């Protein structure tokens, strides 16, 4: 009995801690901003959020000049619906990234960088020569370089924003259709939310690819893969300490959008968090504010959600530890 009590003192808290950690994330809705059209991606700096929009045309990926980028506040206000809307310059903007005072957007077959002060002319990198028609997400990987996913040709490209040039990233394996991108500068690892087929299906179609990126040589090597990761993956982001989160449409048209997360080192999945979004595309996670800004694409809105502090499970973990120790002491005391 003495040995059992000692085991309880350690085992009970650990077992229950694992169960608490697997709970869905308790997001609280701050607001939902109507931006119109089809908001595909959200990104934020310290002050504002920006939402790219495929426009209102019958063909979301058409060269129709009706794309735009909206400016939002973190408290749920629409500051300017068409903050960036240049006729003939934005057709169907999707993923975005910041470099200095420029906001870069992937726009079907080119990457365009806009001066947020509206002073300098846009930077333009044209990738049409590569057979590209659907550039998808962007991520900063150095002080002058971005990586863009080209979903329709199943490739990644390294963009030099100073030289306004690009290089295909040399991979030693064939990618599935790459979508969302996240980069960890501490480890030079590039995380890719991808789909075997770029279509919302009824079976598990998504996978997360982990690549080791070498910016100097414009190459990447395969590290590992998280298969059967969802039905249709889109956005992906670093989250907290050692975790990745990514979005899953689940279905096309239903309010089924779900957030998944996993541990970077172990690739172990935590419990998913249903968010009830219709078209849960490329989101923005603001760690400092603990705010998730998520496109509700087919509804023409952006939803803002807050994750309370402390992170889920912290308070219950303390209760479990105390309870485990109390039980063990009672058993030992009865001896």
UniProtKB/TrEMBL annotation:
Q: Which Gene3D superfamilies match?
A: YVTN repeat-like/Quinoprotein amine dehydrogenase
The answer to whether the entry has keyword Signal is yes
InterPro entries assigned to the protein according to its UniProt record, in alphabetical order: WD40/YVTN_repeat-like_dom_sf
| Top-level lineage group | Bacteria
User: Which keywords does the record carry?
Assistant: Signal
Q: Which residues form the signal peptide?
A: 1-18
Name of this protein: Uncharacterized protein
């Amino acid at each position: 009995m003495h040995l059992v009590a000692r085991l309880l003192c350690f085992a009970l808290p650990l077992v229950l801690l694992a169960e608490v950690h697997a709970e869905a994330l308790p997001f609280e809705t701050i607001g939902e901003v109507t931006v119109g059209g089809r908001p595909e991606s959200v990104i934020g700096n310290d002050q504002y959020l920006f939402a790219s929009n495929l426009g209102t045309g019958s063909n979301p990926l058409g060269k129709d000049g009706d794309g735009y980028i909206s400016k939002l506040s973190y408290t749920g206000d629409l500051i300017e619906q068409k903050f960036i809307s240049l006729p003939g310059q934005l057709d169907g903007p999707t993923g975005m990234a910041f470099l200095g005072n420029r906001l870069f957007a992937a726009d079907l077959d080119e990457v365009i960088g806009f001066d947020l002060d509206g002073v300098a002319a846009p930077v333009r990198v044209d990738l049409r020569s590569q057979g590209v028609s659907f550039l998808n997400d962007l991520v900063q990987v150095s002080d002058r370089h971005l990586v863009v996913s080209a979903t329709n040709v199943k490739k990644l490209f390294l963009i030099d924003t100073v030289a306004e040039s690009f290089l295909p990233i040399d991979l030693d394996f064939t990618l599935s259709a790459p979508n969302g991108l996240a980069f960890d500068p501490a480890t030079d690892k590039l995380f890719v939310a991808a789909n075997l087929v770029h279509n919302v299906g009824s079976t598990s179609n998504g996978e997360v690819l982990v690549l080791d990126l070498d910016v100097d040589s414009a190459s990447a090597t395969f590290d590992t893969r998280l298969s059967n990761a969802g039905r249709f993956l889109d956005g992906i982001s670093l989250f907290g300490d050692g975790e990745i989160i990514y979005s899953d449409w689940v279905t096309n048209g239903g309010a089924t959008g779900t957030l998944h997360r996993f541990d970077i080192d172990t690739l172990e999945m935590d419990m998913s968090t249903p968010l009830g979004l219709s078209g849960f595309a490329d989101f923005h996670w603001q760690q400092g504010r603990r705010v998730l800004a998520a496109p509700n694409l087919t509804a023409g809105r952006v939803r803002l959600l807050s994750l309370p502090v402390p992170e889920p499970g912290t308070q219950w973990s303390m209760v479990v530890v105390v309870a485990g120790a109390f039980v063990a002491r009672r058993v030992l005391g009865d001896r």
